[in-house]
Write a structure and sequence with these properties.
Blueprint lengths: L5 E6 L18 H17 L8 E9 L7 H14 L1 E11 L9 H14 L3 E7 L3 H7 L5 H13 L5 E7 L6 H14 L3 E6 L7 H7 L8 H17 L3 E4 L2 E3 L6 H4 L7 E4 L4 E4 L2 E5 L3 H5 L4 E6 L2 H12 L6 E2 H4 L3 H4 L4 H9 L3 E4 L2 E4 L1 H5 L1 H6 L3
Parallel strand pairs: 1-2, 1-9, 2-3, 3-4, 4-5, 5-6
Antiparallel strand pairs: 6-8, 7-8, 10-11, 11-12, 13-15, 14-15
Helix pairs in contact: 1-2, 2-3, 3-5, 6-8
Length: about 375
């Protein structure tokens, strides 16, 4: 069921491009960053009248590397948001903060984190990715495992009590023991939230080009799946509930913002290349910096049909541990999917899906072929 809307803000700047990264990001000088923040605030203000009746309860600064922005810039954007929109008093305000970008000394890092805290940021999402320096170097990360430990410790000292750490599995050359060691190292830090992603080879990335040159082989699918399930079990044993295929939380600290993508909630997307879903319209902003800085943000729009909403709700909802309530998606759900219902029942009979009254969800086996199952509903 949809929740209150959220706001996603894209910060497209990085120190350097990671070898696996296909996100819209790149380097920029100080003047470009300042001009970008001004353009971002203009775009946000342009929605003021259209969204005057909305009350937002999450803001998420993603990237790129948002922690390259000075705390004053983050504060300026948040002040603009508070001026233009209604924000819940207890809104979840997340900043992606990559280790190695917060400063070179403890004093510098403390000052920067204190600045983000003072601006209103109350949740950090840190891209650890691995706790092995060789793997970090292979992935093109600019930080070390010790940087992760240091930045996490200093974030705690700065008062952040809601921290998420990202982790990548199925890295070429990674063994099951390597992956479980990474997981245990991350668990030992004690974050409230862990996102664990299987490495994806995206066209146009340095890693994909290396694969095309034959420099490494992809991990065997069975080994990949064994790694995912073994790591998931280790996380759940440590008290982290898997509430979505790639996301684990303890003490109920699920990502309120990311959950909006899986329950068909509205979200305003602002910034270069950002996507949004507001008023039944899905849109995407331009990926051309010059256009964006000139105020020509919107590139594409699509008005969702009823069929679009239904298929998207199933596709995203089945990623959640609890799955979907079919009657919430449409009253005639069974009839709507009459042409594929026999295949749906076959997946259930074979142990890939559980249909319990009105609820439908994937089993652990079903997660391994989730794309095949979800394709039925598109």
């Amino acid at each position: 069921m949809a929740s209150k809307p959220g706001i996603y803000i894209h910060i497209p700047f990085c120190v350097s491009k990671c070898r696996y990264c296909a996100f819209l990001s790149g380097p920029a000088d100080g003047d470009t960053v300042k001009e970008y923040v001004r353009a971002l605030e203009r775009e946000l203000c342009s929605y003021k009248d259209e969204l005057a009746d909305r009350v937002f309860d999450t803001v998420y600064f993603g990237g790129g590397t948002p922690s390259l922005l000075e705390p004053e810039a983050i504060k300026s954007v948040l002040d603009t948001l508070r001026c233009c929109f209604a924000l819940e008093e207890d809104a979840e305000l997340t900043l992606e903060a990559n280790p190695g970008t917060l400063g070179s000394t403890d004093a510098e890092i403390r000052e920067r984190l204190a600045g983000y805290k003072a601006a209103g940021i109350n949740r950090l999402s840190m891209g650890a990715q691995s706790m092995d320096d060789k793997r970090l170097s292979y992935l093109g990360r600019i930080h070390s495992a010790d940087d992760v430990r240091r930045d996490f410790r200093l974030a705690r000292e700065a008062g952040f009590d809601n921290i998420s750490l990202d982790l990548i599995t199925a890295v070429p050359g990674m063994s099951l023991e390597d992956a479980l060691w990474d997981v245990e190292e991350i668990i030992s830090l004690g974050p409230e939230h862990i996102s664990m992603y299987t490495l994806q080879l995206e066209e146009g990335t340095a890693l994909h080009r290396a694969w095309e040159r034959g420099e490494f082989e992809l991990m065997d699918e069975d080994a990949d799946r064994e790694m995912y399930h073994s790591c998931s079990k280790a996380l759940e044993k440590a008290g982290y509930l898997r509430y979505e295929i790639s996301n684990f939380a303890r003490d109920g600290r699920m990502s309120r913002h990311n959950s909006k993508y899986w329950d068909m909630s509205e979200y305003l997307g602002a910034g270069l290349g950002a996507s949004g879903y507001v008023g039944g319209v899905r849109y995407r902003n331009t990926e051309v910096m010059e256009e964006y800085l000139q105020g020509r943000a919107r590139a594409e729009e699509h008005v969702n049909t009823r069929d679009d909403d239904i298929s998207e709700a199933v596709f995203t909802g089945l990623r959640r541990r609890d799955g979907i309530l079919m009657s919430e998606i449409c009253k005639d759900f069974r009839k709507h999917y009459d042409d594929v219902w026999s295949e749906v029942l076959s997946f259930a009979e074979d142990g890939f899906l559980i249909i319990d009254g009105d609820r439908m969800r994937l089993t652990d086996k079903g997660i391994d072929i989730s794309n095949r199952i979800m394709a039925l509903f598109v």
